[in-house]
Amino acid sequence: MSIKENYLKIREEVPGHVKIVLAAKTRTKNEVEEAVSSGAGIIGENYVQEAEKMYQALGDKSKSVKWHMIGGLQKNKINKALRIFDIVETVDSLKLADALNKRAKRAEKIVRVFIEINIGSEITKIGVKPEYDAVKKLAVNISKFWNLKLEGLMTMGPRTGNPEKIRPYFKKTKDIFDRLKNANIPNTPNTDLKYLSMGMSNSYKVAIQEGSNMIRLGTVIFGSRNSDLN
Ligand SMILES: *Cc1c(COP(=O)(O)O)cnc(C)c1O
Question: Whose Cα sits closest to atom 2 in ligand 1?
Fold first, then answer.
């Protein structure tokens, strides 16, 4: 099946309120362009440098889509990142939030961010530890930064062949999300929790059942990758 057919099939299959982020790592401009031409509206990139290349390669099309940072953001790449990304899904520390806020202020921008949770407590993954109190603490701190707007939570979840094994982790993330939404975090103009970004190619169905409204898909749309970066 073509990229277009893959995208359209999944778009039809998942509920309309669920947003699809194309995980574009290792993909060519033509591949990403095909998905965008088929209606995909959000491109997720893991590295700032690759995002810049793709942004340039796509020309005018770049401005017709939204860009999400879905990989770890290094501080020295923030200024460049701010020129491309609409949402940074991977904020996992006060330090990073503070650095983003400072640079956003200088650039006179409000940056939309998600907190990434390391829901499986995996040492190889970034993210806040999977405890409500830790996530809430960061959320409250972000709410005090006037140039950041907290709009969601993101998690990867452990990689396993069996998506049912990830279900409890998705449940836990949804639980943190719901509690946080009800926490009445101060400075609410800066906090509007509405997105729960979880689910990838092998797990998006389970993730949606557990309350995800944003899935990040690579393989099921583009086919398998030669080198897996995760
Ligand atoms: C690669 C990647 C995905 C998508 O992975 P697939 O299994 O190819 O769908 C989703 N989220 C992040 C953060 C990724 O790096």
Answer: 23
By CB atoms closer than 10 A (0-12, 13-18, 19+), residue 229 is: exposed
Q: What is the pTM of this model?
A: 0.96
Residue nearest to atom 7 of ligand 1 (CA): 201
Adjacent-strand bridge partners of 20? 215
221: left (phi over 0), alpha (psi -120 to 50) or beta: alpha
- Give CA–CA dist 150/175, Å, rounded: 17
> Ramachandran region of residue 157, left (φ > 0), alpha (ψ -120 to 50) or beta?
left
Q: What is the mean pLDDT of the chain?
A: 95
Q: What is the pLDDT of residues 98-125, one digit of tens each?
A: 999 999 999 999 999 999 999 988 887 8
- What is the predicted pLDDT for the residue at 26? 95
Structural domains present in the chain: 3-222 (3.20.20.10)
* Helix ranges, the chain (H): 3-13, 29-37, 48-58, 78-84, 94-106, 132-143, 167-181, 204-209, 219-222
Distance in Å, CA 188 to ligand 1 centroid = 31
Over 50: is that where the pLDDT of 230 sits? no
The pLDDT of residue 121 is: 86
- Taking the chain, what is the end-to-end CA distance rounded to the nearest angstrom? 25
Residue nearest to atom 12 of ligand 1 (CA): 70
Backbone angles phi, psi at 38, to 5 degrees: -85, -5
